Amino acid sequence: MTDRGTEQRTDAEGHDQPEFHPYHHPAAGWGAAKSVTEFLIREREPIDGPRAIMKMNHEDGGFDCPGCAWPDDMKGLKLDICENGIKHVTWEMTHKRCGPEFFARHTVSELSTWSDFALEDQGRLTEPMMYNSETDHYEPISWRDAFEVVGRALADLDDPNRAAFYTSGRLGNEATFLYQLMARELGTNNLPDCSNMCHEASGRALQAALGTGKGTVDLEDWETADALFIIGVNAASNAPRMLTALAEAYRRGAQVVHINPLVEAGATRTIIPHDFLRMATFKSTKTSTLNLQPRIGGDMALIRGIAKAVLEQAEIDPKALDAEFIARYTAGFENYRAVCDATSWDEIEYKSGVRQADIRKAAKIYCDADRSIISWCLGVTQHEHGVDSVREIVNLLLLRGNLGREGAGPSPVRGHSNVQGNRTCGIDHRPAGAFLDRLAEVCGIDPPREHGMDTVHTIEAMHRDEIKVFVGMGGNFASAAPDTAYTFAGLQKCDLTVQVSTKLNRSHVIHGRRALILPCLGRTEKDHQKAGVQSTSVEDSMSMVHLSVGMKKPASPHLMSEPAIIAGIARAALPSSGTPWSWYVEDYDRIRDTMAKVLNGFEDFNRRVRLPLGFRIKQPARELIFLTPSGRAEFSAVDLPDDSTAAGTLILATLRSHDQWNTTIYSDNDRYRGVKNLRTLVFMNAQDMAERGIEEFDDVDIVATARDGSTRSLWRYKAIPYGIPRGCAAGYMPEMNVLCAIGDYSTQSDQPIMKNVKVRVSLSAPA
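Structure tokens predicted for FdhF/YdeP family oxidoreductase (767 residues):
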């Protein structure tokens, strides 16, 4: 195979050409420092950027990083930051502005041809804009008139279920609570959110197994665990502050096992930037003791193999199981043992893609550890069997009593900074009856009881002309959702689409017959209301709730806070409402007082959230209280899934690049995977490439076949040889979302199966 990745290549006009150089350096460290410096210079933020860094993730009046949901350091670390968090904040704080003059120069048809990077790179939105179909331009509109447009559209619906209210994970708790209150007072539970595409499987599995939809561990548990199992997680890019926990675990002698089809940079070694001595001496720390590479979708089989090995060990050494814990706190153990006995090692090896000997290495680590944490992310959940896989993780934890004690338990890694808080505070299309009862009693409304629609079913309803008004509270729905062309067409069938945003993105140029852009404050900006500067709260991946206070002057005097925007829409749509919308917005403490009466675990909210580091929402399962039908932790006993593929077919997983946050693209580089100047690529196993006559950087066509037999294609992507198991492939979202059919979602969780797309890859025809 020709090693063209070692060449510096430019085209005839001198433009940078794609490069591929396998990455062999530590994660973070000087590479991250260099990348951040270049980014601050590019965004022209050499002063405000570093100033913001010193306030980010601080308990004393700082703001919460709008990036990932990894918890803040509990010991007062002053530089509790990471490369991608700094980029995310700087991207928001940019001096670039995208106002009426910009929209006057460019038609929406033109903007729809721009790249995702180019759209967001125009800078911060400055004032409300409404689409004019006659001119094909967005034009200024006053806030009052904008609220009237939305309010009238909602009030005129013949059925409130013809509206859908989408939520991105960046929305603070107070705005979240008002948003769901407005939707339910209108009469709908159509509250799709980004969790529907990410961790829906985790919530449903944990709820069924433990009676809580969240993990049970906190950051202190990570600091005391004897073994950490990290499954389907790319820590260095998606939760970079996790690298500190992994490095510290390795240094204290804990075992760290990574399970991922790709051995990512964060699963090898790192230099933590705030460890000044190691930075100065270029001394890295390992972040793993064992790396296992299952085939895509093989996690459940691998975990079953570890459990089977534990049960076999228990026949020799009964202490391999925590028999007392199992007898006292669990139900269904014998059924689970039977299904493990019935699962042969041949089946486990075939379906996981990992040798029995290597699985037994992981099992020995698990048996030798007194306290184990298992952490996972979308590599586990975005499959047909995502719920079963998470329940298999819980099964393994239960075997050795790794629950309800220090240093042990399940720990899902959430992506966006407040996505867990969104669900806690009411963004749920399947709300619990008890929650609705409290909402009705405290807020004086009659909330609907029938379930609403999630993300996938909202898009399908758009195509049936059942959704007339779509409101997107943050995020980039058009790009984040599966089956891109189908999603675009659904949005375009709506009568009105409303996007509450900080920057221009794809969802503004793929819109309904009428469309509004409502610009809001960013997390870094001061929120001035009648009672003074306001704070908002967020909940991290480990159920810690704390305050966030902006420190920067708003990008425009015309921006409004998200609570104020929601209240403005609600007043216009519900003119007879008894809810004191304006009163709430004057002082967010008033919202929190109401939340304290409605939400379990939020009692005395205003006082507790102002404590140093905030407070942790109690997780009953951590106290060995299981809100399940049996009152016990429930084992799950199911057969391994049959995920076989036809000859010549690969299983493709979508993933992020390192220089990306969700649908926000910072550049076309992916440093940790060795890629420069390229996003339209597919990572493949070298043998799979050779079988197809494909060499590095060859143009290839990718054809996905959906469950219903329909096909979706991408043309002339570049093939990159990578260390991925045979029969597997990977590429970047959102570009590859087009390959995941709208009907290809899990029957267990309704999540799009974006990490299990069946594709054929072949050489493109000569140009």
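The CA atoms of residues 56 and 62 lie 6 Å apart.
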